[in-house]
TrEMBL record:
Taxonomic lineage: Eukaryota, Sar, Stramenopiles, Oomycota, Peronosporomycetes
Molecular-function annotations in GO: ATP binding; hydrolase activity; RNA binding; RNA helicase activity
Location of the region described as Disordered in the Swiss-Prot/TrEMBL record: 519-552
Annotated Gly residues bias: 521-552
Domain Helicase ATP-binding: 3-184
Entry protein name: RNA helicase
Keywords in alphabetical order: ATP-binding, Helicase, Hydrolase, Nucleotide-binding, RNA-binding
UniProt EC number: 3.6.4.13
Similarity comment: family membership: Belongs to the DEAD box helicase family. DDX21/DDX50 subfamily.
Pfam families in the record: DD_DDX21-DDX50, DEAD, GUCT, Helicase_C
Annotated CDD domains: DEADc (cd00268), GUCT_RH7_like (cd12937), SF2_C_DEAD (cd18787)
Residue ranges occupied by any Helicase C-terminal domain in the UniProt entry: 217-365
Keyword ATP-binding on entry: yes
PANTHER family found in the cross-reference section: ATP-DEPENDENT RNA HELICASE DEAD (PTHR47963:SF8), DEAD-BOX ATP-DEPENDENT RNA HELICASE 47, MITOCHONDRIAL (PTHR47963)
């Protein structure tokens, strides 16, 4: 859809889902036009193509696409952290296609190394990021430099903008710099999902205290032995802390702005080649990764400075998986306060999250055992002989099935009973209890009355997150692990009449009134202590009202 329009000399804005091949959409027609015009390739020639990208990783990916598609043309990639000397040598030799980050492009313009009088194509990849606050000024400097040499340039310049998302304000900025008759190719209609349809979007509640444990468990269940995974964190500090946390046993590396360029390239090479299976990264890695990732985990929903969900960032993160027709999984962890951000993301991307509880420990152990079985089947026969003597000794001490089960427990690292974790939040040392009623429950007070009657005060006072089920015929709450034995005794003594049970999976729960208002009205700012919405909360005023209330 873009090829003929670019070949016809039109300015163009192109929008497509992440993973649909935007880079080739502009690279192929541009290369075709360059090769048709057989100019002499003089030494020191200025570039005919200038392509800018927001990150070093994306710039390198785009440059590779140009190099592989047109090896006869000279392609140079420039970015911060790389040697000036090698880049200057490339300019002296002559360049046909220049790809770089905005900062280094402007730097070479200011130094007089990069001359723009020969530029026929100005390309902005990931245009939504390039034109955001912080990048917009840099882009405007390049356009201004282009305008200064316009009179001495014999060529007509085409401007091409490509991105997964093109918000309205990007179009407004494009009005200033692109031709009035520009083409707009949109492969993501407003009624369609902006995110890849090959990705399963999962949301799991998780208190921040239980985040490292839950992340490790999710890797254990969803990450295959030969798969690649990325955990996205909001800050560099979060990345560093997760990477060294004892719960994260998978070999991993961090990727963020403080990592030296040489180390970044080493890390990306290892990840690309499959020698490294897990990256823990900030959004520096969300754009420009040129390989399919099997599993993406957001440690929390991406958000803007305003506190609202950053939908564009979510689209780009989830777009690292489910590429080129392959299936992928994107899991987002969230707290109760972040539930409305998921609603905002759902509304914009057109996909519903599959709401799940944290994985059951038994499921985790079974998944680990399944992986171990695969590894056992791949053991070299010569190694089996070395262990046969000790295996015979074990078989004399234990029954064959128990012996093999114990060996699997050792292989998977599950030699002791796992810590119980909440199904509602993933917090360790809490267990989720289901209260079931034969009558419709109109308010939580009904459940609290039963809990206070049946459970001693020292445990009842520490109960968290009491929430009614979606059908209002029950409720779930988190009980400290110390009270589990007491509840199990109630279940045993009460038999069929006991309202309590320990669920293996979380039933569908009601949203809070605050979350429902977010869905209906889209938020806004509330009163003091309320955050977004119609007010309310502690000290709040207006609709939704204040007052803390006992455990409600």
């Amino acid at each position: 859809m873009t090829f003929d329009k670019i070949m016809a000399g039109k300015d163009l804005m192109g929008r497509a889902r992440t993973g649909m091949g935007k880079t080739l959409a502009f690279a192929l027609p541009v290369i075709e036009l360059l090769l048709k015009d057989k100019r002499p390739r003089a030494r020191g020639r200025a570039p005919r193509v200038v392509c800018m990208a927001p990150t070093r990783e994306l710039a390198k990916q785009v440059a590779t696409e140009f190099e592989q598609s047109a090896p006869s043309l000279s392609t140079v990639c420039i970015y911060g952290g790389a040697s000036y000397q090698s880049q200057n040598n490339a300019f002296r030799s002559g360049v046909d296609i220049l790809v770089g980050t905005t900062g280094r492009v402007i730097d070479h313009i200011d130094r007089g190394n990069l001359r723009l009088h020969n530029c026929e194509f100005l390309i902005l990849d990931e245009a939504d990021t390039m034109l955001e606050m912080g990048f917009r000024e840099d882009v405007q400097k390049v356009f201004a430099a282009m305008e200064q040499v316009k009179n001495e340039s014999a060529a007509t310049r085409q401007t091409l903008l490509f991105s997964a998302t093109i918000p309205k304000w990007v179009k407004d900025v494009a009005d200033k710099y692109m031709q009035k008759d520009r083409e707009y190719v949109n492969l993501v209609k407003e009624s369609d999902s902006q995110a890849s349809t090959d990705v399963q979007h999962i949301a799991i509640p998780c208190h921040w205290q239980g985040r490292p444990t839950l992340l490790a468990n999710l890797l254990g269940i969803y990450a295959k032995k030969d798969s690649r995974s990325i955990i996205f964190a909001e800050t560099k500090k979060d990345c560093n802390e997760l990477a060294v946390h004892p719960e994260i046993k998978t070999d991993c590396q961090v990727l963020h702005g403080d990592i030296a360029q040489e180390q970044r390239e080493t890390t990306m090479k290892a990840f690309r080649e499959g020698r490294l299976r897990l990256l823990i990264a900030t959004d520096v890695a969300a754009r420009g990764l040129d390989m399919n990732v099997d599993l993406v985990i957001n440690s929390e929903p991406p958000r803007k400075m305003s506190g609202m969900a950053d939908v564009d960032t979510y689209v780009h993160r989830s777009g690292r998986t489910g590429r080129a027709g392959k299936k992928g999984i994107c899991i987002t962890l969230y707290t109760n306060r972040q539930r409305d951000q998921l609603t905002q993301i759902e509304r914009k991307i057109g996909n519903k999250f599959t709401m799940q509880g944290p994985p059951d420990q038994e499921d985790l152990i079974k998944a680990s055992a399944a992986k171990a079985l695969t590894e056992i089947n791949n053991v070299d026969p010569s190694m089996i002989e070395i262990f046969q003597e000790k295996a015979s000794e074990l078989l004399e001490q234990m029954e064959p099935e128990k012996c093999l089960a114990a060996a699997l427990a050792c292989i998977t690292g599950h030699t002791k009973p796992p810590r119980r974790t909440s199904l509602m939040s993933g917090v360790p040392d809490y267990v989720t209890v289901l209260f079931t009623s034969s009558n419709f429950i109109r308010a939580k007070g009904y459940v609290w009355n039963a809990v206070n009657r049946d459970i001693p005060e020292n445990f009842a006072n520490d109960i968290k997150q009491l929430t009614l089920t979606e059908d209002s015929m029950g409720a779930c709450f988190d009980l400290p692990i110390g009270g589990l034995e007491l509840v199990e005794k109630l279940i045993e003594e009460g038999s069929m009449n006991c309202p309590y049970s320990i669920p293996k999976t979380l039933p569908k729960l009601q949203q809070s009134a605050f979350q429902m208002r977010q869905q209906s009205f889209g938020g806004g700012r509330g009163g003091r202590g309320a955050g977004r919405g119609f007010g309310g909360g502690r000290g709040g005023r207006g609709r939704g009202g204040g007052g803390r209330g006992r455990r409600y």
